[in-house]
Protein: FAD-binding oxidoreductase
Organism: Pandoraea terrae
Amino acid sequence: MRRSYLTAAPADYEAGAVSIEHSGWPPQERLATYGPLCDDAQADVVVIGAGLAGASLTLHLAERGMSVVTLEARQPGNGASGRNAGHVQTFLDDLDALRSWGDRASRFVAFFIEHRDIVFDLCKRHGIDGDAAKTGMVEAAYRPQAALARKAAQWKAFGYDVDVVTTPALRDLLGTEKYHYGLHWREGGHVNPFLFTHGMVAAAVRLGARVYGDSPVIACQPEGRRWRVRTETGSVLAQRVVICTNGHVGNTFFPELSRTNFPLVACAMATEPLPAALLDVVNPARVAMTHYPTGLYPWVVDGRNRLVTATIPHPGRAHDAKTYFGYFLRHLHRLYPQTRDVKIELGAYWTGMTASSSSVYHADFPKLYEVDDGVLALMNLGTWGNVMGPQLGMSLAHALASDCLDKCVLPLETPQPVSFPRLFELKTRHLMIPAARIIDRLQLA
Ligand SMILES: Cc1cc2nc3c(=O)[nH]c(=O)nc-3n(C[C@H](O)[C@H](O)[C@H](O)COP(=O)(O)OP(=O)(O)OC[C@H]3O[C@@H](n4cnc5c(N)ncnc54)[C@H](O)[C@@H]3O)c2cc1C
């Protein structure tokens, strides 16, 4: 069989570290690369890491006229941000989990709602060609779900354009009569997260930010009232340092940060481009799809007419592209029996790491840590990165520019190690996802 997708060593898939070329998102033409830091510089703020969080922070600091240097170990978007599934989800799954935030919860939710279109807004404002499309989202279920009805009522009250839909509307949206209940969010959609992250960085550079690639930070030390951030070939002296390194894996400066989250490898894949006629069958409205309640096989149709989806691999089997693509195809065949005779080929398969602040999916919210005096970390974005990364980068930039951290919508916390960080992975890969696959196959929920 012809294989068009790239392969790598199993250990690289397991570590979420296959090269970014494996991801389905980088375009054919090469984007700008950023050279390494080769001297000693100064700045108001040093940002470490150029994923969705660091790129947005850099852009919004530059927009506010702050002097900012961003140091990225590889190139922008080479971490989780260039490897995700492209869903732009503009609502939150569970607000109850925010109760412990007290007064901050309502401020955070109001901010999230106000800026829910940030992906589309930033693309428009900065001319970012991120293949962002506001095609809406559907959470589709096999049978009525009281929790979905409550969710629709709650978010409608917030001003969202969302409705409970049943079989006829779902057939029009999704082209299948297998689903009988769901929510149609006429907001959100999809984005190419790699292009979007690159686009934010390019916009920041146009506004005066200095961005260096291939510049892993190896040390961060106090020098008077400032911090010296070092790479192998240079350094930056700054009043403020913001660490945006996701799970902080492998970093020896402030190593306590790598114990603040539950890491989990996720795999994603894209089909070869499909004919428009076939897409009109499997997703006529081109909405971003999620299956409720299992959350399995979230998928989007991207600008290259490919289906892009993600899942969690079996323990030790993250490299097994054929198995997960097979699951996805069988899921499609169950929903669209007419696709059984159509050739749908795998075009790209890759993995990436998520870093979650909670082992309970709905309670997993990003964190802003005060690591030391003048050193912050904005990280542990879990599976919320496409909207929350840009939002929180913007909020933190606003707070830093006004020299008032209380203006950031995230509470400022001290890094705390989580208990049994590997337990989450064991639970998810051994139990929850395999059980969800059985539930889906038998249409039990
Ligand atoms: C398979 C998969 C599917 C997903 N699907 C979705 C989805 O559909 N929708 C959604 O909203 N979210 C999704 N997510 C989650 C989302 O991708 C993440 O929440 C988001 O990318 C995190 O962004 P970040 O900027 O915090 O981290 P990253 O993008 O990982 O960026 C961190 C950066 O820090 C750099 N770095 C690390 N150490 C150093 C150092 N010492 N010096 C300099 N730089 C350093 C890394 O190279 C990296 O570029 C998914 C994630 C995965 C893995």
In short: Residues 20-87+194-260+360-421 form a domain with the FAD/NAD(P)-binding domain fold (CATH 3.50.50.60). The chain has a mean pLDDT of 96. The longest strand covers residues 346-356. The longest helix spans residues 421-441.
